[in-house]
Design goal:
Number of helices: 5
Helix content: 10-25%
CATH topology: Rossmann fold
CATH class: Alpha Beta
Largest sheet: 9 strands, mixed
CATH superfamily: Class I glutamine amidotransferase (GATase) domain
Oligomer: single chain
Radius of gyration: 16 Å
Low-confidence stretches: none
Length: 228
Amino acid sequence: MAADIAVIRFPGTNCEFDVVEALGSVGATGRVVFHDETSLGVADAVVVAGGFAHGDYLRPGAIARFSPIMDAVRSFAEQGGPVLGICNGFQVLTEAHLLPGALQKNAGLKFRCGEATLRVETARSAITNRATVGDLLRIPINHFEGNYTCDDDTLAELRADDRIVVRYVDNPNGSVDDIAGICNAGRNVVGLMPHPERAMHELLGSTDGRVMFESLLSAAGVDLSPIG
């Protein structure tokens, strides 16, 4: 039976069906769950998809964190379930305090849309457990507030605990320490600014997003073929 992945949709989310298609291409079933629901159902993993939740009013994710479904996401994460927040989803997870730090406006106040090269910094996360440290992944970006920031103590903790998941090779937005994605202390919750769901097919320029979704399924306990 295919893994069941809950894909969270808020008003303004616009990447949920891209995520569903990406999950299908690695053998999982993506199921859209609306923000006003109170249960994830029987989910093996959760993806908080990208877009502009609640129009990014106040600041991205600030309203979405109070949606009824976030209590279920929080409970799922606390029980060790794998949770991935992509772009706006990363912003939602920081606002909900499931991840530390915050996302602010890009350096130079420029909207960034294009391909970024990421370097895998740890294989101990829900989206890199099937990757190798040092791997370079070509993954699209599409954001205005993707500039990750945190205080010095938090940054030191992320470094010491090996919780910086991926870094930009050529930082496009000013993120501190070139950070493109981080995980929580339990390593099951990951926030990622680039969009791996847009790097699943060679016709679109890259298949490097596949390892991230395959890793998510592995984190959910799905038995995948041996690496390599």
